[in-house]
Write a structure and sequence with these properties.
Elements: E1 2-3, E2 33-42, E3 48-61, E4 64-75, E5 84-94, E6 98-109, E7 114-123, E8 128-135, E9 140-147, E10 152-154, H1 158-163, E11 173-178, E12 184-199, E13 202-214, E14 227-231, E15 237-243, E16 251-262
Parallel strand pairs: 10-11
Antiparallel strand pairs: 1-13, 2-3, 2-16, 3-4, 4-5, 5-6, 6-7, 7-8, 8-9, 11-12, 12-13, 13-14, 14-15, 15-16
Length: 263
């Protein structure tokens, strides 16, 4: 059974995963440099909550092709009562399948005081992911380890997963998703159709995708249906429509504010 729920920008609080037949995601195409700005709008108030600049770079490391994701963000994220700043560095091998290696996230106050550092390291030899989270305001550190599958992806690569979807086939893709908790869930990426979408960066003919969580024997309770929109011409991210960071958080639109630059 499936519960449809936001998997991007979220920490899910439900436990239990049913095994599914999954597949590793193969990168279809990606520029050596890609940078775009997104903004997040609260659908109830119409206010801008936060903004991010996403930068993607590819290269070679000891004969392996890699993708480096850098994110710079600021604003009121996930219900924060004061504005925050954050940055993310996340590293993947893509030769040609997506293989997460590590990610690091730093959160700062508006006056640039470091508040929290989270690192995640993936070891596909012992099939575990290792999280370390340090609260810089009191020095307390939390460590967790979870088992992973060879097709595992995380939140920072989910956009690349979507642009690598086989749009010609329009079939379901089953894989495993690792949250920031960390926990791992089986998920399904599905094709919904095409729509014309208008965002600050322009109006685009878009593919519409949906991501679903598979929860085994749990009753099929439809919590929310998140949708992702990608430009038909070059599969660039255009818009996300769903919950900001899991059940109980704001209903938001995440949209392309400035058209991405590619090299």
């Amino acid at each position: 059974m499936r519960i449809r729920i936001l998997l991007v920008l979220t920490c899910i609080l439900i436990s239990g995963v049913s095994p599914v037949k999954a597949e590793r995601i193969k990168i279809s195409k990606i520029a050596s440099f890609n940078q775009g700005k997104i903004e997040t709008i609260d659908k109830e108030t119409g206010k801008i909550l936060w903004q991010e600049v996403h930068t993607y770079r590819t290269g070679m490391d000891k004969g392996r092709k890699y993708l480096l994701v850098n994110i710079e963000g600021n604003g009121y994220y996930d219900g924060s009562e004061e504005p925050l700043k954050w940055n993310v560095e996340s590293y993947y091998f893509i030769d040609p399948y997506i293989v997460p290696y590590y990610s690091t996230k730093q959160i700062f106050s508006a006056d640039d005081k470091l508040r929290e550092v989270t690192t995640m390291y993936y070891d596909f030899e012992d099939m575990n992911a290792y999280l370390t989270r340090t609260d810089m305001t009191n020095g307390q550190t939390t460590k967790r380890t979870i088992g992973i599958q060879e097709d595992a992806v995380d939140r920072y690569i989910i956009g690349v997963v979507c642009i690598s979807y086989p749009f010609e086939e329009k079939r379901d893709i089953d894989m495993h998703y690792v949250t920031d908790d960390p926990k791992m869930y089986s998920v399904t990426l599905s094709y919904i159709g095409e729509e014309s979408v208008t965002v600050p960066a322009g109006t685009f003919a878009c593919h519409k995708l949906e991501l679903e969580m598979n929860l085994g024997l749990l009753s099929p309770i439809e919590i929310f249906i998140p949708h992702f929109y990608y430009y038909v011409s070059d599969t660039q991210f255009i818009k996300y429509d769903g919950l900001e960071s899991g059940f109980g958080t704001s209903d938001v639109i995440i949209q392309l504010a400035e058209k991405a630059v590619e090299k």
